[in-house]
Amino acid sequence: MKVLFIGGTGNISTPVSEMAVERGVDLYHLNRGNNLPIKGVKSLIADIENTEETRKVLESHEWDVVVNWIAFTPEQVQRDIETFKNKTKQYVFISSASCYEKPPTNPIITESTPLKNPHWQYSRDKIACEDLLVKAFREDNFPMTIVRPSHTYYSVFPLSLGGWTEYNAVDRMKKGLPVVVQGDGTSLWTVTHARDFAKAFLGMMGRKAAIGEAYHITSDEVLTWNQIYEQLAEAAGVKAKIVHITSKNIIDYADQNGFASEEGGLWGDKSHCAIFDNSKIKKLVPEYVATIPYAEGIKETLAWFEADPKRMIINPETTRLLDGLIKKYG
């Protein structure tokens, strides 16, 4: 199977790329060549935003599957439709589970849950991308598949404040300083290791039954936000000192004090319970089982950060935000 990943060296796509090569996929990456290559992956150098440059690089190729890991707007998706029409048997768009209705009517999320997020522009743009692809499939038979990851981690900390590519929360935990968790920390959330995601994703690629369909791919493990922070602290060899602050107070404080808005990430995502019914992807890929519990997977993520001091980024703005929140509300 000849496959093109647009991007391919990110938090989710790196483990997917590595597993694809292990399974014998003829995998190409299209990117600007700024990241270290993954062993076994063939490289095509072009800026996907430069349409003419990209078409020249791709003109001699046809694909079984094209996956765009870095498309976020309808304009980017429309460009892909025009570029890969009649050039691929399957086009996979990486959407987001944050597109699902916020606040949710039902905490159990299926692919039939409405797509509606009034709080986060990122999610609204992803929804618009999905709408465009559905139209292209219905009217022009464009062979699309939509995949919606939810808080998938490998080289990021899946936290609500002080994490992701930042080391702030871990640094505070190790120094005995408090960290902030929204609400009372008991809302239920799902985090998924990227290698687990990869198993289902690779099983979906190249499947005719997946054309025209949308799938989310997550773990079946459900944790409270308190557990997510506590298990990271345990992996770091310490205990988490958690200060609970309402989402509204976090959002208002950030807005009133010149910080980046927290509305999208909280009201538009992490303030609500997120429990996923994975029946649809398991019907397509019966062998899919998520086997990496967060308590184990986060140890690997922590080790990855600490293997290179350059990865242990302390964002001073995040420090200022957390200290200000704790001083005012803690």
TrEMBL record:
Protein name: NAD-dependent epimerase/dehydratase family protein
Record-linked CDD domains: SDR_a1
Lineage, top ranks: Bacteria, Pseudomonadati, Bacteroidota, Cytophagia, Cytophagales
InterPro entries: Epimerase_deHydtase, Lipid_A_modif_metabolic_enz, NAD(P)-bd_dom_sf
Domain spans labelled NAD-dependent epimerase/dehydratase: 4-217
